[in-house]
């Protein structure tokens, strides 16, 4: 199991937090899936 976990209310929030922890530079490229699931 994991020692630490963070719960978020959306995938957008999860991606935002994940990208913030990667220490990306302006010239770095991030590739994600173009598939989405619209919530109701």
TrEMBL record:
InterPro entries: DegT/StrS_aminotransferase, PyrdxlP-dep_Trfase, PyrdxlP-dep_Trfase_major. SUPFAM superfamilies: PLP-dependent transferases (SSF53383). Pfam families: DegT_DnrJ_EryC1. This is DegT/DnrJ/EryC1/StrS aminotransferase.
């Amino acid at each position: 199991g994991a020692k630490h976990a963070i719960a978020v209310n959306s995938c957008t929030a999860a991606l935002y937090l994940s990208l913030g922890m990667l220490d990306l530079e302006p010239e770095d490229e991030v590739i994600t899936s173009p598939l989405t699931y619209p919530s109701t």
